[in-house]
Amino acid sequence: MPVTNRLEEVIHIPEGVTVNKNKREIFVSGPNGEIKRALRDRRIKIETDGDKLILSTEYPSKREVALLGTYRSHINNMIKGAQEDFTYKLKIIYSHFPVKVRVEKDKMVIENFIGESKPRKAKIIGDTKVNIQGDLITLSGNNIEDTGQTAANIEAVTKIKKVDPRVFQDGIYIIEKSGRPLR
Questions:
Q1: Same domain, yes or no, for 46 and 128?
Q2: What's residue 183's pLDDT?
Q3: Residue where a domain stops, chosen among 61, 83, 105
Q4: Which residues, in sequence order, are CB contacts of 52 under 8 Å at separation 6+?
Q5: What is the percentage of the chain residues whose pLDDT exceeds 70?
Q6: Read out DSSP for 123-160?
Q7: What SS3 state is found at 107?
Q8: How many domains does the chain have?
Q9: Given this model, what pLDDT does residue 17 score?
Q10: CB 3.0-4.6 Å disulfide test: which of 23, 60, 151, 153 passes with 122?
């Protein structure tokens, strides 16, 4: 009996979602839109078989096992994003100076943050949709990386440096990711 060192991961494609492969690019489309991603490492083979997507590698090293898991997670997130939006909720917190937030094209403008006269700007990545209601900001989009990076950009631009964060708590903070509150 021949011994093969082959590692496989099978991803089941749900009803209403289609996955297409063009060379080293994966296209996932569903009721919530289409997501495209380049998965370029040649050590991982990607094959479609009906309603299954098979990721495999021959003679895997630790690095290839990790890469296979990374590709599996990326594709699972793409499938989930093609079905429903990823959402992030952020809360605006201030103690003295009321903060004004608005969206201009692909940037979020934060005015009067800690009394500053110059507004701070955070980049909105990809097709992320921004909804501002009072002191709550809701970000949603079908690409988890774009939505998460936009939330991180907003949180990072309001970070106050060289002060005690227990005393000066002003900022915009992520409070919920895709329906799961943070602890």
A1: no
A2: 65
A3: 83
A4: 10, 11, 12, 13
A5: 97
A6: EPPTT-EEEEETTEEEEEES-HHHHHHHHHHHHHHTPP
A7: strand
A8: 2
A9: 92
A10: 153
Domain that holds residue 49: 6-83
For residue 118, report the phi and psi dihedrals to the nearest 5 degrees: -90, 125
Burial 70-90 (b: 16+ CB within 10 A, else e): ebbebbebbbbbbbebbbbbb
Out of 34, 54, 83, a domain closes at 83
Let me know whether 91 and 163 are in one domain. Answer: yes
Is residue 183 included in any domain, yes or no?
no
Which token pair is 153? 């950009």
Domain shared by 96 and 138, yes or no: yes
d(C-alpha 21, C-alpha 24), whole Å: 7
Q: How far apart are the first and last CA of the chain?
A: 52
Which residue is listed with tokens 């969206």?
A: 103
Residue-by-residue pLDDT tens, the chain, 183 positions: 555 688 888 999 999 999 998 888 999 999 999 999 998 888 889 888 888 999 999 888 899 999 999 999 999 999 999 999 999 999 999 988 899 999 998 999 999 998 889 999 999 999 999 999 999 999 999 999 999 999 999 999 999 888 887 888 899 999 999 877 776
CATH number of the domain that 144 lies in?
3.90.930.12
pLDDT tens digits along 79-91? 999 999 999 999 9
Would you say the pTM of this structure is higher than 0.85?
yes
Q: Are residues 141 and 70 in the same domain?
A: no
